[in-house]
Design goal:
Elements (H helix, E strand, L loop, with lengths): L29 E3 L2 E3 L19 H33 L12 H6 L8 H9 L3 H7 L1 H23 L10 H18 L10
Antiparallel strand pairs: 1-2
Helix pairs in contact: 1-3, 1-5, 3-4, 3-5, 4-5
Length: about 200
């Protein structure tokens, strides 16, 4: 049985789109990349407008943003400087100011850290030769720590990502080998110059 013929459907009338109304302050709509956004006017350079009576957020927020970025590295450096200042004032060469090394007291063997406080005391007084003689490994750690702290502070001040090192197992093995070698050599007659 043949079906009934379909009647044509007339097209629906289209409505003209009206732009969104301006915000209560009377700001015209912002014609952005993705359409019209009410109340979001833009400057020719793409920056957001500044409310009347207020300065630009760029010039106003720079010191606060800089302080927030550099707070952590500045705090660490301040603690390090305070520790060196304390050791510089309280002489570790005089007995009774600091506890004795338990490894040296029990075994008579100089551990890798023996002489570290005396090295820090010499660094605080600017005597780098005495610092190396007290503990060359500790002096190298002081230099690397200061260099790395200044790098972190510089990166934070510029707003660039922190230069975090890529630590691999080979690096840890190398550091461990240096520490063990330094400990062994300083406890032999050949390494008497490394004994504090």
């Amino acid at each position: 049985m043949p079906g009934r013929p379909r009647r044509p459907v007339p097209p629906r009338p289209t409505r003209a789109r009206r732009p969104p109304p301006a915000d209560p302050a009377g700001t015209p709509p912002h014609h952005g990349r993705w359409g019209v956004t009410p109340g979001r006017p833009s400057h020719p350079d793409g920056r957001a407008p500044v409310a009347p009576g207020r300065s630009s957020s760029h010039s106003e927020g720079v010191p606060l943003a800089l302080l927030r970025r550099t707070a952590a590295p500045l705090g660490v450096l301040a603690l390090a400087v305070a520790a060196f200042a304390y050791v510089g004032q309280v002489d570790p060469h005089e007995p009774g100011h600091y506890p004795a090394c338990p490894v040296l007291a029990l075994t008579g063997v100089h551990c890798p850290g023996c002489g570290g406080l005396r090295s820090a005391h010499a660094v605080a007084h600017g005597d780098l030769a005495a610092a190396v003689g007290a503990n060359a490994l500790a002096f190298a750690a002081f230099v690397v720590g200061a260099w790395w702290g200044l790098r972190l502070l510089s990166a934070a001040a510029r707003g660039t990502p922190s230069p975090l090192p890529t630590v691999r197992s080979g690096h840890l093995w190398a550091v461990g080998a240096v520490v063990v070698l330094f400990t062994v050599v300083r406890n032999t007659p050949l390494g008497a110059v490394l004994v504090p």
